[in-house]
């Protein structure tokens, strides 16, 4: 058995009830892209029920309409944690509910507290340039020449809880840049900063280009996640893209830091084809929709990237084994038709497809925690010690889910392991 969760980064599907408080009332990433970009689109996701999920909000999705008999369980999920950033969304998908938002900073200079900047400059031995909220491509054009002349570091933020450090790879080698990020991460822990992000670039003034050597350094996790939980019951775990960075590698056996959607989708192809005696959970982030198209307010580019994902999903479905689980979801919105360049506070779609619509009997890996941790039962057996039979499934609508962490409980149900503390299974 294997469960594959694909997070289409920022693929929101309608403003949340509290979107007004975030300045995002009326946002609808998927719907507005459909309205802006004519023609049929995203056929595999459409057949799974993406258009049906969009209909829950009553928002038309031309080109990705509802279908009579979706192949997957379909619905939308409401984020309960306060925020609209990568960590908040992914952490809630993995079972964590935050009670308070991460620290954000004033967009105008000086954004960061003086105490934070002074300690960073002292420990890094380099001065800070920027110290404001900005687009990453704009700020390296504004400060890139001075950075190359002085070696000072371009540090900036956004509407999210981030401390970003941009540096030219020929001025500051990558390993050195990552060390500066670790310093900022250590300082940022005291300020509840969600992520420190390395933003390396190359080129010359007027033609700078960010490279794919970005690296995220996340705040320490407040509690174990579904990844740790599954691993403790013998499930093999794999992470693709920036998942390892988001979760600080916790609970992850195989971490593939592939850069960009093309490389990540190729890695998924490879992992689907691998044969293993262990049941496996594969967690994937597809960042290009957000990083390249969402923040740059490019609906046409966004539509094309989702189309590429949909094409890959069609291929994945063909290659899955009977009983394998494929989930499509997102972590927040980033409506490319909306004012500004920031994330948007939105519902996310959830599409859960089980190959051949049968939930198989799980395998029997050794339970590393012993019988006491699993209630005295082994996976795949009922309370009387009799082996369970495969369970037929009938896909349908699952409505509006209160909390992204319903994904967590779905994985527990799928792998037949003890329940996680939060969430309700889609099955």
Provide a quick synopsis of the model.
The protein is an alpha/beta fold and 427 residues long. The chain has 13 helices and 16 strands. Helices cover 31% and strands 19% of the residues.
Order of helices and strands: EHHHEHHEHEEHEEEHEHEHEHHEEEEEH
Which superfamily, in CATH terms, is the homologous superfamily of the largest domain? Alkaline Phosphatase, subunit A
Q: Oligomer, anyone?
A: single chain
CATH architecture of the largest domain: 3-Layer(aba) Sandwich
CATH topology of the largest domain: Alkaline Phosphatase, subunit A
Taken together, the total number of domains comes to 2
Number of helices: 13
Query: So what's the overall shape?
Result: globular
Q: Structural class, from helix and strand content?
A: alpha/beta
Which residues form runs of ≥5 with pLDDT under 50?
A: 366-377
In round numbers, the mean pLDDT is: 93
């Amino acid at each position: 058995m294997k469960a594959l969760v694909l997070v289409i980064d920022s693929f929101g599907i309608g403003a949340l009830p509290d979107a007004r408080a975030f300045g995002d009332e009326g946002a609808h990433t998927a719907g507005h892209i459909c309205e802006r970009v004519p023609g049929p689109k995203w056929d595999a996701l459409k057949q799974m029920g993406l258009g049906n999920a969009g209909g829950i909000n009553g928002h038309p999705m031309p080109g990705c309409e509802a279908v009579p008999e979706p192949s997957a369980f379909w619905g939308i999920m409401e984020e309960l944690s306060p925020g609209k950033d990568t960590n908040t969304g992914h952490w809630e998908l993995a079972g964590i509910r935050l009670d308070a938002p991460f620290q954000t900073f004033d967009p105008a200079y000086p954004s960061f507290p003086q105490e934070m900047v002074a300690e960073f400059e002292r420990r890094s031995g380099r001065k800070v340039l920027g110290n404001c909220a900005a687009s990453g491509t704009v700020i390296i054009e504004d400060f890139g020449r001075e950075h190359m002349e002085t070696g000072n570091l371009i540090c900036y933020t956004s509407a999210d809880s981030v401390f970003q450090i941009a540096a030219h790879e020929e001025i500051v080698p990558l390993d050195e840049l990552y060390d500066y990020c670790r310093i900022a991460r250590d300082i940022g822990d005291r300020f509840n900063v969600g992520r420190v992000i390395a933003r390396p670039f190359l080129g010359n003034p007027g033609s700078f280009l960010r490279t794919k050597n970005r690296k995220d350094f996340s705040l320490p996790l407040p509690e174990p996640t579904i990844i740790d939980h599954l691993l403790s019951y013998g499930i093999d775990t794999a992470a693709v893209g920036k998942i390892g960075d988001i979760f600080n590698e916790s609970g992850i056996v195989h971490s593939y830091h592939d850069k960009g959607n093309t490389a990540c989708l190729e890695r998924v192809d490879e992992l689907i084809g691998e044969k293993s005696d262990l049941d496996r959970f594969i967690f994937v982030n597809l960042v290009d929709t957000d990083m390249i198209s969402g923040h740059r307010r490019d609906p046409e580019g966004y539509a094309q990237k989702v189309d590429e994902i949909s094409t890959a999903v069609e291929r994945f479905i063909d290659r899955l084994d009977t009983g394998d689980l494929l989930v499509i979801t997102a972590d927040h919105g980033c409506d490319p038709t909306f004012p500004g360049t920031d994330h948007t506070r939105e519902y996310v779609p959830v599409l859960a497809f089980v190959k051949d619509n049968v939930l198989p009997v799980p395998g029997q890996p050794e339970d590393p925690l012993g019988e006491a941790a699993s209630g005295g039962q082994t996976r795949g057996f009922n309370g009387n010690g009799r082996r369970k039979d495969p369970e037929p499934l009938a896909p349908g609508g699952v409505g509006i889910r209160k909390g992204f962490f319903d994904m967590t409980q779905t994985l527990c149900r799928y792998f037949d392991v003890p329940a996680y503390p939060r969430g309700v299974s889609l099955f």
